[in-house]
Amino acid sequence: MPGTPDPPATPQLERFRRMATMRAFDEACLDALRRKAIHGELHVGLGQEAIGAGMAESLRPDDAVVSTHRNHYHGIAKGVDRRALLAEICERGSGLCRGRGGHMHPFDPSTHFSATGIVGASLPVALGYAHAFRLRRQDNVAVGVTGDGGSHNGAFHESLVMAGARKLPLVVLVENNVLAISVDFHAVSPTRTIAERAAAYGALGIHVDGTDVDAVADTFARAVEHARAGQGPAIVEATCYRFRGHFEGDPEHYRSRDERNRLRNAHDPLTLYAARLTQAGVDRARVDAIRAEEKEAAKAMLADILAEPMPDPAGALEGVFADGARP
Question: Which of 34, 42, 142, 198 has the maximum number of C-beta atoms within 10 A of its C-beta?
Fold first, then answer.
């Protein structure tokens, strides 16, 4: 009846909203790119929202997350201010790094979140956090995010050797979308999964369907609990599908349009979870309204950011040198 408030949101609806927020954020980034408000490469994670949404529930404000070139969802999961993150991506002065870090190098000390565009380089930084937590006798956890390609990087091995030997609170989250840019994972991996390699490092290894937000939330919680309890590192391998190219502008000669459409139709985490919610008795109109609300909020946020002026080039060297001096 008119005027009746919506029933309170369930944890499942909150998970769906979190995924919808992430999808809307990356769609706003794509819109900004079309408007030429973003320069250089842009890597979006459409299709991988369930991983970011699932990891969010187990992270504390004082835990650390170090991400990759495809980092937006992890930043949102860690609690980074979305407006400041989008402003950074759009190179505005109100961004996290005053527009100087851009899309691949956001840094937010207040939430202990950072990212790097160098493949595999996230893990040594996360390892440093984990080592510091141990030295300070804090029960915090450090999360290093990488992909299936990054799991074949030497830094992956070296970081897990040290974390395993010292039982450091490191959780390695591997987003296995089966493509290291264009290289098929199964064509180059010596093992069927990445998670099964964990035993070599004295680590917990768990494989999970990264399109199922409920499964990701449960699995990631188990890994974080393991690391937080002082039992050593964990590897969480979440299989997923990247719906767009490695970067915007990628010609994607390595897969056909039919294959891309098939993946989106069969493995979209938002579509899959919306169906699960409606089967559980949630009104489909409410589910659709959540997506619409998040989309409109992201559009309004982008419009507000794009109305800001670009930073003054005269300040380009500010923050480059520790003492503020120019060469």
Answer: 142
